[in-house]
């Protein structure tokens, strides 16, 4: 079929009809030329992959060398729970086969290797990078690598713990136009890096800042201090986590009640993913990446937090 | 992660999903991953190409197959041990009766039309099964919970009425492109290719009666000595030329309006000799359904804006192709947005009319969206909404009434929220569906026939499909398979009688009982006689009232009944400019009225969403959740204060 010049093919027009009506032909064209990288293929990222493959991005590169376990497949609808199929293959390889089938117009491939070891040049070929299931250090370093490139690369990290999820967005200097009534206004947004954002002193944040934001930072910090793998925690860790909460809150001059104990308990006990939350977070993330690539719509700045317990999906701007 | 209690509620549950489209595919996947093991799914539709950008369980090779069945197969691949029961059927079929509904613990709607939604709402009320209802349009979506006696039912709030246009705007004074589309689709297309016996306002009313009678009905019939080209040109000249001239004679009309310009083929396509279209033979290849005027004229891009000349060529070519390739269908065609030739014809006709009225022209792509009431749809919103449905379903299964929420998915954040939960309302005490409040109908009892009452009120307004109408103990009308022949004849005769001349006369003060046995819905209607109705404002010639829209009543309720939050009365600012487009839904009134099986021209065909019912006004009046600052009190201390909303399980 191939793409003929700037025009969408007949097949593209037929399949993407309903979404072109949402974001227009230009946005669809930009999407079809975009290259996306994802690392860490748990439920939320799988949902995200489905969404952008359906939307018709140019290419999607998957990175996750882990072998399949029952736990890894708990929120995965791409891989059948059949050892005959999964034996000897990495999660990325298995997901790749399935995603290719979703939309033959998107090129889906696998990049092997440890995310932490990819160099700056590696990221150059992408328009958006989405990482999950990796250490805080890796998140910071990948984000820094993306920022070191002359071309702007949209950077996202996403984590779900229990029935909560968090998305971080870094679009660096982002300008876009938006229609207001008849006029088109040029908008400019300045994003901090992940490292800068989480270093913003808590006391300088508005009092109503989402509790989930602080709780996620405590857990993140806890995992670094304990040299834990991400989310390799249990309810038994609560006393130590509470100790850390106290230290952090004192250092940052905020009240400990800003980080409620039951919330920390829930986040600590998280073992398996909660598929409805994966769908919600993966959906919001998909929308954000589509916005950033197409230049249509207000992108969120710079955290999105969702807790199924109260049902709120909140945007926080944490830029200092 | 789901807790133990949640998991056991999930595992033991038997759920019914209605709809396997955009929301349905996402929902079935998320239910299966979440651990649901017994899922029944009803969908009457088959898969279309334009579904594939979001209904991810389907592939190109499945086009034409049952959505419910293919969705089941796709989900069993990754969750082989669960039970999924598909029904390739209409949820309004009689087999899905109250007893059928009673076997489920919860019903989840992923529907695309008001009619089916109302039907499911009633069956859920009648069977006492909780309903989680949903809808999406573009980036907007909503999930609501309806539990009999505890929250409002789906029909407690009146839904925004489908947009209709005054007849004269369509026939004589269009000012927007949509008016031209409605004219081209509902008048011209219907006249030329549809049922000839239907009423049609195509010919403009003129004060000059003599001249319009000269161009009588048979103008639209092809004459024996005419070829398709001549016929097409004559039709063209009549509707875009002559009719406009007739309209212009009515000078009163144009005092404060721009006068339209009559358009004749001789001005636009003067040189085209009859039957000399270069690519004509191409069109004869292939099956009739793929016949296309664009293809035979070499126009490729549906996004292009055609000139008046190109539109005129498409018009003549489409007309010719209908007669040449699809003659058998003429006389019974209805507009279908998936019928390429019909879309081409309507686009070109609307554009020619637009040119005549100095209204900006539109591409085929845009015209198709307007004519087909195509609702915008993307995968991401459906995925989010499906996730929210499952969260609510789990609460419903645990009977966790205090935690139920209606959630709105917004395009622009409101109070920092992109996903905004709102506490559900109590049932509307004056809802005719869930609280048996009588309705009032103003109608002319000497002029309106029983048929008008059945079609315009019972079917269109009350959404009943198998109605039974009683006056006291006298049966006036009934539908069903088990009727005796003489009963059928009696009822048929009644339909054509005016109300006051029925065997049991209906006059002012009469109370009628209308019942739908399948929906187990019964309501009383107080008849009030009224002689005159405003033709433009009250086109039905009758006015139904009595169930107050819940909004006004709720406004006061929230302040005294809501939790003692400082924010109870705070309203939600919502940008209304984006919500306007939600309201642009041109539902074909006839089809709504028919309330029968969905026709191809129905709004609902390939859209996964709904007549979106969040308006800025509605949201503003709905109370948002209390602030964060209240949450931690509840969460940390447990809930001791009965005035505060309990949040924690």
UniProtKB/TrEMBL annotation, chain A:
Q: Where in the cell is it found?
A: Nucleus
Its pathway, per UniProt, is:
Protein modification; protein sumoylation
Question: What's an example Gene Ontology biological process for this entry?
Answer: protein sumoylation
Q: What is this protein called?
A: Ubiquitin-like 1-activating enzyme E1A
Q: Which family does it belong to?
A: Belongs to the ubiquitin-activating E1 family.
GO molecular function, a single term: SUMO activating enzyme activity
For this UniProt record, give its keywords in alphabetical order, as a comma-separated list. Answer: Acetylation, Ligase, Nucleus, Ubl conjugation pathway
Q: Which InterPro entries match?
A: ThiF/MoeB/HesA, ThiF_NAD_FAD-bd, Ubiquitin-activating_enz
Q: Give the organism the record lists.
A: Solanum pinnatisectum (tansyleaf nightshade)
Subunit structure as annotated in this protein's UniProt entry:
Heterodimer of SAE1A or SAE1B and SAE2. The complex binds SUMO proteins via SAE2.
**Boundaries of each THIF-type NAD/FAD binding fold domain copy?**
16-311
Q: Which domain of life is it from?
A: Eukaryota
From TrEMBL, chain B:
Q: Name one GO biological process term.
A: protein sumoylation
Compartments reported by the entry: Nucleus
Which residues are named in the active-site annotation?
168 (glycyl thioester intermediate)
- Specify the domain of life of the species encoding this protein: Eukaryota
- Annotated pathway: Protein modification; protein sumoylation
A single GO cellular-component term from the record reads: cytoplasm
Q: Region Disordered: list its residue ranges.
A: 555-580, 623-649
- Binding positions (Zn(2+)): 153, 156, 431, 434
Name the residue ranges with Polar residues bias: 559-573
Key words, A-Z: ATP-binding, Metal-binding, Nucleotide-binding, Nucleus, Transferase, Ubl conjugation pathway, Zinc
- GO molecular function terms listed in the Swiss-Prot or TrEMBL record: ATP binding; metal ion binding; SUMO activating enzyme activity; transferase activity
* InterPro entries reported in the protein's UniProt record: ThiF/MoeB/HesA, ThiF_NAD_FAD-bd, UAE_UbL_dom, Ub-E1_IAD_1, Ub_act_enz_dom_a_sf, Uba2, Ubiquitin-activating_enz
UniProt key word Metal-binding: yes
* Subunit field text: Heterodimer.
Protein name per the record = SUMO-activating enzyme subunit
């Amino acid at each position: 079929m191939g793409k003929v010049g700037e025009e969408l093919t007949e097949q593209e027009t037929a399949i993407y009809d309903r979404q072109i009506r949402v974001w227009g032909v230009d946005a669809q064209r930009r999407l079809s030329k975009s290259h996306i990288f994802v690392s860490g293929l748990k439920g939320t990222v799988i949902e995200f992959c489905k969404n952008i493959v359906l939307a018709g991005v140019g290419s999607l590169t998957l990175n996750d060398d882990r072998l399949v376990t029952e736990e890894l497949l708990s929120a995965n609808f791409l891989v059948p729970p059949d050892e005959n199929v999964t034996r000897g293959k990495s999660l990325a390889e298995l997901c790749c086969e399935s995603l290719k089938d979703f939309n033959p117009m998107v090129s889906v491939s696998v990049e092997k290797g440890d995310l932490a070891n990819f160099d700056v040049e590696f990221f150059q070929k992408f328009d958006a990078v989405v990482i999950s299931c990796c250490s805080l250090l890796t998140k910071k370093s990948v984000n820094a690598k993306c920022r070191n490139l002359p071309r702007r690369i949209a950077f996202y990290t996403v984590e779900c713990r229990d029935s909560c999820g968090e998305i971080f967005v870094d679009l660096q200097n982002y300008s876009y136009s938006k229609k207001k009534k008849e006029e088109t206004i040029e908008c400019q947004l300045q994003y901090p890096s992940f490292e800068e954002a989480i270093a913003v002193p808590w006391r300088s944040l508005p009092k109503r800042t989402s509790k989930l934001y602080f709780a996620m930072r405590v857990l993140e910090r806890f995992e670094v201090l304990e040299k834990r793998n991400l989310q390799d925690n249990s309810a038994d860790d609560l006393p130590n986590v509470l100790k850390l909460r106290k230290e952090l809150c004192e250092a940052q001059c905020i009240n400990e009640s800003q980080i409620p104990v039951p919330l920390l308990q829930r986040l600590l006990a998280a073992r398996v993913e909660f598929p409805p939350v994966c769908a919600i977070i993966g959906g919001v993330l998909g929308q954000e990446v589509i916005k950033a690539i197409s230049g249509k719509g207000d992108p969120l700045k710079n955290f999105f937090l969702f807790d199924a317990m109260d049902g709120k999906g909140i945007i926080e701007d944490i830029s200092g | 992660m789901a807790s133990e209690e949640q998991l056991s509620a999930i595992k033991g549950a038997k759920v019914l999903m209605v709809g396997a489209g955009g929301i349905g595919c996402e929902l079935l996947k998320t239910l299966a991953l979440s651990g649901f093991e017994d899922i029944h799914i009803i969908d009457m539709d088959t898969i279309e190409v334009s579904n594939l950008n979001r209904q991810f369980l389907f592939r190109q090779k499945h086009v034409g197959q049952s959505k419910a069945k293919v969705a089941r197969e796709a989900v069993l691949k990754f969750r082989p041990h669960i039970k999924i029961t598909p029904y390739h059927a209409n949820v309004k079929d009689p087999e899905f009766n109250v007893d059928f509904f009673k076997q489920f613990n919860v019903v989840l709607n992923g529907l695309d039309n008001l009619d089916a939604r109302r039907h499911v709402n009633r069956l859920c009320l009648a069977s006492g099964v909780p309903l989680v209802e949903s809808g999406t349009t573009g980036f907007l979506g909503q999930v609501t919970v309806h539990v009999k006696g505890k929250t409002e039912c789906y029909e407690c709030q009146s839904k925004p009425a489908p947009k209709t246009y005054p007849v004269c705007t369509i026939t004589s004074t269009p000012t927007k492109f949509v008016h031209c589309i409605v004219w081209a689709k509902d008048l011209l297309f219907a006249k030329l290719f549809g049922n000839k016996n239907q009423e049609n306002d195509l010919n403009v009313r003129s004060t000059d009666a003599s001249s319009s009678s000269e161009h009588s009905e048979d103008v639209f019939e092809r004459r024996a000595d005419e070829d398709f080209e001549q016929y097409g040109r004559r039709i063209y000249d009549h509707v875009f030329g002559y009719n406009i001239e007739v309209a212009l004679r009515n000078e009163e009309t144009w005092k404060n309006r721009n006068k339209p310009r009559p358009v004749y083929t001789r001005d636009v396509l003067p040189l085209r000799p009859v039957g000399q279209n270069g690519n004509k033979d191409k069109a004869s290849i292939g099956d009739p359904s793929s016949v296309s005027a664009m293809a035979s004229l070499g126009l490729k891009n549906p996004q292009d804006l055609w000139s008046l000349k190109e539109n005129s060529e498409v018009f003549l070519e489409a007309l010719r192709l209908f007669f040449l390739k699809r003659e058998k269908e003429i006389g019974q065609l209805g507009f279908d947005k998936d019928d390429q030739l019909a879309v081409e014809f309507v686009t070109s006709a609307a554009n020619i009319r637009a040119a005549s009225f100095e209204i900006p022209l539109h591409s085929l792509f845009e015209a198709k969206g307007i004519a087909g009431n195509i609702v915008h749809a993307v995968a991401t919103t459906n995925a989010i909404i499906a996730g929210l449905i499952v969260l609510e379903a789990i609460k419903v299964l645990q009977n966790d009434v205090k935690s139920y929420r209606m959630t709105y998915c917004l395009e622009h954040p409101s109070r920092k929220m992109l996903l905004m939960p709102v506490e559900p309302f109590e049932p509307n005490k004056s809802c005719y569906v869930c609280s048996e409040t009588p309705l009032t109908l103003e109608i002319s009892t000497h002029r309106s026939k029983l048929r008008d009452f059945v079609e315009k009120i019972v079917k269109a307004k009350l959404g009943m499909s198998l109605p039974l109408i009683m006056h006291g103990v006298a049966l006036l009308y009934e539908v069903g398979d088990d009727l005796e022949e003489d009963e059928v004849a009696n009822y048929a005769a009644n339909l054509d009688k005016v109300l006051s001349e029925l065997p049991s006369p209906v006059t002012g003060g009469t109370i009628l009982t209308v019942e739908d046995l399948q929906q187990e819905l019964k309501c009383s209607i107080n008849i009030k006689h009224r002689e005159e109705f405003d033709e433009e404002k009250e086109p039905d010639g009758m006015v139904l009232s009595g169930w107050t829209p819940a909004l006004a009543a709720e406004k006061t309720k929230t302040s005294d009944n809501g939790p003692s939050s400082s924010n109870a009365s705070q309203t939600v600012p919502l940008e209304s400019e984006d919500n306007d487009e939600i309201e642009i839904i041109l539902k074909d009134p006839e089809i709504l009225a028919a309330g029968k099986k969905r026709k191809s021209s129905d709004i609902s065909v390939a859209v996964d969403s709904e007549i979106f019912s969040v308006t800025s006004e509605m949201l503003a009046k709905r109370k948002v959740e209390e602030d964060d600052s209240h949450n931690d009190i509840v969460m940390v201390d447990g809930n001791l204060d009965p005035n505060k909303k309990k949040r924690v399980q």
